[in-house]
Design a protein that fits this description.
The chain is mostly beta strands. It has one domain. It contains no helices and 10 strands. The strands form 2 sheets. A 5-stranded parallel sheet has the order 1-3-5-9-7, with no helix packed on it. It is globular and about 35 Å long.
């Protein structure tokens, strides 16, 4: 995760496509990422980065059709918000504290699936 410094706080990455999803790796993300597509999901792998305790990494997914597939370490807390016709699959920790990844998923069809490594 590329942390923002004091000169550019909370940098937001924006990814846009009409058809086709986005593959996002942790080392290239900032604290905020927005991925938008008409049709296509987001495949996000955060297993190779160290998210400091108390830090919140936010990913916003906007699409008509397409969900989010998220891979994180076992100690990362995941919060899912938004409106979509699809469920959330996550059996991870829900205790407060530690690093947090917040997924805001907005769309008609597509769920959020969290895999822990």
């Amino acid at each position: 995760m590329a942390k923002s410094n004091g000169e550019n706080p909370r940098k937001t990455d924006i990814k846009v496509s009409l058809i086709g999803g986005h593959r996002l790796a942790g080392a290239t993300l900032h604290e905020r990422t927005v991925t938008t597509s008409l049709i296509g999901g987001a495949d996000v792998d955060l297993t190779d980065i160290d998210i400091p305790d108390g830090t919140e990494l936010r990913i916003t997914k906007l699409s008509l059709i397409g969900g989010v597939s998220l891979k994180v370490r076992r100690d990362v807390r995941v919060e899912v918000h938004g409106l979509r016709l699809g469920g959330v699959k996550d059996d991870g920790p829900s205790e407060p504290g530690g690093p947090t990844v917040r997924i805001d998923a907005w769309g008609l069809v597509g769920g959020v699936s969290v895999t822990r490594a």
